[in-house]
Amino acid sequence: MREAGGRGSTDGGSRSASGDVPGSVSDGASGGASERAPGGSPAGVGVAHVERERMRAALRGARRVLPEGVRRETVRERLDRLVADAPAAYDLDGWTDVYGNDDGIIGELERRTAGALGTEAAAFFPTGTMAQQVALRCWAGRTGNATVAGHPLSHMEVHERDAWAVVSGLRMVHPTSAPRPPTAAEIYDLPEPFGALALELPLRDAGFVLPAWDELTATVEAARDREAVVHFDGARLWECGPHFGRTLPEIAALADSVYVSYYKSLGGISGAALAGTEDFVEEARAWRHRYGGQLFQQWSAALAALAGLDRELPRLPEYVAHAKAVARALDEGLAEAGVPWFRVHPGVPHTHQFQVWLPHPPELLNEAVVRQAEETGTALFRDWYEPGPAGPPGVALTEITVGASALAWTDDAIRSATGEFVDFVDGVRRVG
User: What is the dihedral of CA 311, 314, 318, 319, to 10 degrees?
Assistant: First the structure.
């Protein structure tokens, strides 16, 4: 964090005059930041004055791109990439799947996923929203309690249109509204029983933050003491190992069920998995059919997921390590450019993703992104957006995902591009 009149850094967050953390929501709220459109920004927010097609063209035309993001590809480009990856991922003389019930490509993906997580079984789902609803509905039936303890900044609360309540008849209580995972003490202090504790690892909308390993195990133990099961919203669990200093099977072993995504971090087309014991996964398959998830064929998504497991999963520790250097260089670059207030959060990223905050409206920053990409061939950032209704006015944030495209960036290159971006911001402000 940098503020006018002095310098300092903290992982605890930058607070406004009222003491509230920008982007946090009050306990009991079921909303939060707007649901994000493809590319990361909330639908309809942040790109009002920068046409989306212009932004897309600028990013596609850039020679150097720091943050990974959703690839904007033509159908032909995506098919070509899938064909290039396919032979190493799966035997293409095998059959396509039919409703996912054969022992073909879907079964291979499920076995590979269970093996990576160290669970007895895994079931493929078309979406994570469906997978998590099914998991928590199964646990509600098994525990006899439809109340779920979760975070108001979790994906289920912020980005799924209250599907857990409207579709699945569940009820959510919040151990904390602080922008971090709940602690063991907060689980013990919940004033009412709950059947399941849902933990998002990492907590994306709080800045992709994770607890320490001892804190996580204590929180899980607290839930067990409260006679509740534990479900991990692990859409991005794949990259959590370096922070915890544990393997994926060790992390997954703490939970009764685990959801993982195939397109977040692994670069797949779509799809998710729900992993756990054989009997739990078998029950989840039945609910998957009831929820409309028994698609006729899903082989293309499964093939891309297998390729992602082969290509991206082994590289994630490298991305996580480089994210720390990228965050430090951005922090230094913004300070050297004389920006009066900014925030890189967390200061030391917990995964390969983190946030950057600047004191400007998103449309101004997005215009600067486009101009830098168009005029210099460098894309330092992607979409900027408002931090949600609880954030202060005139402030915007962006998410940085460090992947293969960032590995070639040196500290000096990042600091130089950061100063250049600030110049573009100042230019847009003068014209506007």
Answer: 50
